[in-house]
Amino acid sequence: MLGDEAVRLVKEAKDITADHIPAYNEEQVRLVAQETRYLWTRIEEMYASLGQLTESQGETAETEAATAHGPSQGDGGRDAAMAASQQTYALSQAEHRNNVGGQTTLYAQTVARNKRCLLAYHDRRAKFLRSLMWNVHLAPSMVPGTLVARMSPSEQTYMREYARLNASYRDAVEAQLIPSYGSLDWAANGELPPRDLLIEVRVVRDCGEIVTENG
Q: CA 159, CA 138: separation in Å to the nearest integer?
């Protein structure tokens, strides 16, 4: 059934907890991507068939009317045949458009759903990796081998780059501070940084009088 492969990925993502992550299911991801590409190809083919059908039926409508009623019937008979042929053509065209419209809508909705499921699966795993890096104080070498074995090569690269970017930002901030303040170890508590706009700041060293942008 359409979308079943993507649902399996979502169920796997739900199994991720604070201290457990299933192995990266590369085969399942490949199946979802393969189904998505196939459905999008079918959508393009069906829309292309509409254009071809319009051209072919338009060319044959007059020919069918002329062969069905010979010249002996006069212009009135030919006109009636043309009207009947055009009506038949319009009905068949409308029916075909309805069929194609229903199929393409179903396929397009499935494509969009598959993409959302893929994004949700990888986003859930990325959140686990970020939390994991803070738990090990942004040191990828401290990640247990059992967890590394469950990651894809791209996830391992993501984990190392995330730690490197944080270290680079920390060094840039430290370079702007007075040297006597020492090093900033913001991964000491092993927790993700707060994302709230208003946070409570705990002072661990007297910095004297501080003037902020707001005074």
A: 9
